Amino acid sequence: MKKAGARIRRVLTTPPRLDEIEVSLIGPAYGECIIVHVGNGEWIVVDSCLDKDQNKPAVLHYFDTIGVDTSNAVRLVVATHWHDDHIKGLSKILEACPNAEFVCTPLMRERDFLSFVITAGRNQLTTIGSGTHEFYSILQILKDRGVTSRTTLTPKWAMEDRLLWRRLRKEFNVHIYSLSPSDASFSKALQAMSEWISSLATPTTSRTPKRRIRSPQPKKNPSCHTQEGFYQKK
Fold first, then answer.
1. What is the pLDDT along the chain (234 residues), one digit of tens a residue?
2. b/e 27-53 (16+ beta carbons within 10 angstroms → b)
3. Which is nearest to 225 in space by CA: 57, 64, 50, 25?
4. 166 vs 181: CA distance, rounded Å
5. How many Cα atoms are found within 13 Å in the side-chain-facing hemisphere of 6?
């Protein structure tokens, strides 16, 4: 047990080599954050989970621990889907990574969805889950960066077989693709989103609980080493 604990501490405090591909998974067994070192000191962050002890996204604490300069080293910040346990804290990650592109499903570019998010964010609607306000904060960050750079910045939309990022170096090349959603999945999601937004038209009061999708119960994974409620697997 002591040897396993020492190994975990070493993994959590030692950065990967420049020629090493490292995939780390941090989270409480649901709503995890995936951190990918793609070599050459460059990183990709997928989703977010909060480290309650540090009161910030766990990935930022991890980067601080191993000495990663987030202002320059992170290339992509990715939201796989719009559940609170996957997106909460993502705006703080994006804010800490000014040179990173934000990637998400094209479902989020639909006019009805964007109008809904902007309205909910501006009015701080109490009946909407925190994921909505998180995405609103992300849009505001992109807008502010666009003003600074005098360009229009939008999320990079992930679709089936789309190239999201690449690095061409003589040491080794890296290509990052999104594998989904397909056109059929995107169409089904559009229909489901339309029905969900329509359901929110029902009058509510200040005492109405926030509407959000419940997170699944944590699943035991014997292949993962646990430490203080989080785990990492290479």
1. 344 444 445 556 789 999 999 999 988 777 789 999 999 999 999 999 888 887 789 999 999 999 999 999 999 999 988 777 788 899 999 999 999 999 988 766 655 565 656 665 566 544 445 577 788 888 889 989 988 887 778 889 898 999 999 998 877 899 999 998 888 887 787 777 677 667 765 555 555 555 544 444 444 443 333 233 333 444
2. bbbebbbbbbbbbeebbbbbbbbbbee
3. 25
4. 20
5. 3
Bridge partner list, 61: none
Query: Taking the mean position of all CA atoms in its chain, how far away is CA 201?
Result: 28
Residue ranges of the domains in the chain?
A: 2-199+222-232
CA distance 168 to 176: 12
Residue 75 near residue 44, CB atoms below 8 Å: yes
Q: Please state, in angstroms and rounded to a whole number, the distance separating the CA atoms of residues 61 and 30.
A: 19
Ranges assigned E (strand) in the chain: 22-26, 33-37, 43-46, 50-51, 56-57, 74-78, 101-104, 156-157, 162-167, 174-178, 225-227, 230-232
* Phi, psi dihedrals of residue 76, rounded to the nearest 5°: -135, 140
In the structure encoding, which two tokens stand for residue 223, read together? Answer: 């292949």
Quick one: CA dihedral 129, 131, 134, 138, positive or negative?
negative
Q: Which two tokens stand for residue 181?
A: 């959603």
CA distance 69 to 170: 24
The closest alpha carbon to 85, from 27, 1, 169, 165, belongs to: 27
